[in-house]
Each structure stands twice: as structure tokens, then as C-alpha cells.
Amino acid sequence: MTKNIQSHNKLRRDEFLRIGEGANERRRPKRHPHTMMAARLGRVAAPLLSRATRASGSARSASTAASLTKTVVTSVFRKEVAAFAGGVLLALPFTEPDDFFYYSFTTDKDPDAIIDFYSTEDFLQILGIFPIAIHFVLAGVVWDTERDNTNVVYNSMEISFTLEEEEGEDENGEEIVGFFQKRERFVNWIPLTHFVLWDQVQCYGFKYLNAGKVEVFHRGEYFNGPYLVRLGILLHAKYVIWATEKHINSKLFATDDLEAQHEQRGNIPAYVLHQFLDSLGSQKQVDGALKEKIELLKKHSVAGELVVTKKGSSLQRQSSKIVLNDASAQKALDSVLRDLAKTSSGQNAVAHAVSDLMGETKTGTPVVMTHTTKGMSKRSSAVPA
Q1: Please, which residues have CB within 8 angstroms of residue 377's CB and are 6 or more apart in sequence?
Q2: Which of 11, 71, 168, 365 is most exposed, with minimal Cβ within 10 Å?
Q3: Angle at 366 (CA atoms; ends 363, 367), nearest 5 degrees
Q4: 82 Cβ contact partners less than 8 Å away, ≥ 6 residues apart
Q5: Beta partners for 216?
Q6: Contacts for 3-10 with beta carbons within 8 Å, 24 or more apart?
Q7: Rounded to whole angstroms, how far apart are CA atoms 186 and 200?
Q8: Which DSSP letter does residue 284 get?
Q9: Is 230 exposed, middle or buried (0-12, 13-18, 19+ CB in 10 A)?
Q10: What is the pLDDT of residue 350?
Q11: What distance in Å separates the CA atoms of residue 385 and residue 377, rounded to the nearest whole number?
Q12: Are 272 and 357 in contact (CB under 8 A)?
């Protein structure tokens, strides 16, 4: 009985399974051959599409990175930021090698008079340029009682110097000063602190050449400080050597007229302007009417400056103009120059006078000063280096 029941159940289960498979076959749609081919192609193309998608994503990532970089650059490197960064770089300490400038000129003036000029406050008038600046500095000077030839200015700058001479012989065997140098050190720091802003050493002096001529030199021995300060020092040094040459080679130098020398040192540009007018008036191309205008200008005692500009990058031509502080004097001078410019001889006269005004100050590459002249004995003042 039990076996018959089990056998019956098995038959029903098998029949149920056959019925279910038939239903599934009826529900399953028939696949077209083209559909089957498309499926196969899809399976082959799937990896390629995946790679293309990843490549497209990488391109988008690169584009996004470039855009982000551009945004950062434009936001960081703005004009204000660039100006600040440039200021920081220019303010960084800058150490200049030995002899970072050397300017010189020749003269036949008395060497002893040149030594007196550099050893006293006479040279300070030219070094300080403006009288008000000289008075301001001198008012703040406090001499160091423990060190020789050393002073402090307003607790912000220390100045110390040494004087050095070397004796020699001239062509006739007579003893002369063959070399002289005033070595001056300037140390600037933040007031009331020991934080050094810049430190420099400059030397002023001369060396004997021959036939009574000496070479006066200004030399920058050492500099350590901001780059902008260095540029200012170089510009100042060029003016100082130019003004010194004008004064030493003038007729007043080493004369008994001390008051006239003092006035000349206090305003070298005015002296040079008068020198230019004298040179212009002495030219044979200048007639009587122009000479009267020139003499009138000289009586005004006006100060001015020479402005030299270069025109064009390919044509090496220069245009020079003298600018006066007095408007009426400027108008009179322009009138004289316009009249002279009408003829070639007048133009040559102006060119000659301007050449005299510019002077023959020699500037060149830095030179290391060595003093091993035979027969010289060295003596220095007892001043710390």
C-alpha cells in the first residue's frame, strides 16, 4: 500500500515538472539570428567601451587639474602678491664682492691739498649733497670715547675710518706722497637695536702717476645689504665722483679763498652751470647779443641740472637738455640755444660746451688696488680696521 502511494506521488511530480518546462518554453521568445550576432558583438565591444570610458575620465581629470592650477596661479600670483614677493626679494641681504665699484679721474693739483680735502669736513659737503642733510647728520653725531675715529649717528649708524699713506719718489728723486687712502666704513642698523640693515666700506684717495699727475679714485670695497640700497649707493657714488672731479679740477681748489670754496662745494650743480655758460660764451660762434644773454644768465646764479636722454635703440644718438629751476632763466637759456642751433657752427659750440659740462670722469670695471710700488714705505694712522 505504501509503495503504491510513493509511486503515485513520483508520477505526479514528474508530470508537474514536464508541464512547467513546457510553459517556460512557451513563454521564452524565439531569438532571431541577427539578435544573437548583436549580443556576441556586444560582449566583444564591452571591454573596448570600458577602456574608452576610462580614457575619457582621465582627459576630464587632466582638464580639471589644469583648470584648478590656473585658478590657483591667478589667485596667488596677482599684482599685489607679485609686488610683495618682488619687494621681499629686493629686501633680502645681498653681498657684493670686493671692489663693487671703482671711479677715477686724473688731476695735477697738489697732493697735500687733496689729502686735506678728504681728511676734513670739506669732502663731507660733497658726500652729503644737500646742506640740510649734512646739518642733520652732524647734529646727531656722538664720538666714541673708547675707539679712535669712530662715531655713532642717532643710534642708527656707525661711521669709522682709517687714514693710510705711502711715501715714494717722483721722477727727480724727491720724496712725495705716492699713495693716500681714506677707508671709511658705514654700518646702518635699526635704531636702538643691533639688527644690521646694511654694512659697507668705501675708500677715497689717490695714487701718483707721473709728471706731477695723480689719479684720484673712489672705490667700493665691500657691501652687504638689500639690493635696492646697493643701487642707491651706486647712483650716489657716481654723483660724488662727478662733483669731486668738478671741485678738485676747478680754479678755486687749494686757493686762499676759503669762503668761495665752501660755497662752491655746497652747490656743485650751480658751479657746473656757470662753467657751462662760460664755455658757451667763449665760443667764437657766439655773437655779442647772445653773449649779453649769457652774462645775464650768469648773474641770476640759478641752479639746474643736465638731462641726457638717448633716442632710438638702433641709432646711437643722444639728446641733451639743461633744466633750470628759474622759469625766466630757463626761457632765456632756451632762446640762446635755439639761436645757436640754427647754424652748424652754433651746434658745434653747444656740443663743445656740453662736453665740457659732462667732464672727463672715467668709469670702468672694478679694479683691485695693489700698492707694491718700489721704494715706498707705508705708514698708517693708528685706527682700528
Answers
A1: 166, 167
A2: 365
A3: 105
A4: none
A5: 105, 206
A6: none
A7: 5
A8: T
A9: buried
A10: 73
A11: 19
A12: yes
Position of cell 659732462?
358
> Which cell numbers hold the place of 176?
712725495
Measured CA to CA, the distance from residue 156 to residue 319 in angstroms comes to 42
Which residue matches cell numbers 513563454?
27
Position 190: which residue type?
I
Q: For 190-253, list the strands marked E by DSSP.
A: 196-210, 213-226
Q: Residue 259's pLDDT is what?
A: 93
Q: How many residues does the chain have?
A: 385
Q: Which residues lie across from 114 on neighbouring strands? A: none
Residue corresponding to grid cell 651746434: 347
C-alpha dihedral over 308, 311, 314, 317, to 10 degrees? -60
Q: Is the pTM of this model over 0.85?
A: no
Asked if 103 and 360 touch (Cβ cutoff 8 Å), the reply is no
User: How many alpha carbons fall within 13 Å on the CB side of residue 238?
Assistant: 8
The residue assigned the cell 667700493 is 220
Backbone angles phi, psi at 370, to 5 degrees: -120, 135
CA–CA separation, 346 and 285 (whole Å): 6
* Cα 219 to Cα 365: distance, rounded to the nearest angstrom: 11
Provide the pLDDT for residue 378. Answer: 39
Tens of pLDDT, residues 152-183: 999 899 999 999 999 988 888 889 999 999 99
Cα separations (Å) of 259 from 19, 121, 247, 263, 268? 138, 14, 14, 6, 14
* Joined grid coordinates for residue 318: 643722444
Helix (H) or strand (E) holding 334: helix 327-340
Q: Cα torsion at 267, 272, 278, 284 (round to 10°)?
A: -170
Site of grid cell 539578435: 35
140/155 Cα distance (integer angstroms):
8
Tell me the three cell numbers of residue 3. 509503495
DSSP 366: -
Which positions of the chain have pLDDT values less than 70? 1-66, 68-97, 283-290, 293, 296-326, 329, 354-385
User: Count of CB atoms within 10 A of residue 147's CB?
Assistant: 12
Q: What is the distance between the alpha carbons of residues 158 and 150, in angstroms, rounded to a whole number? A: 7
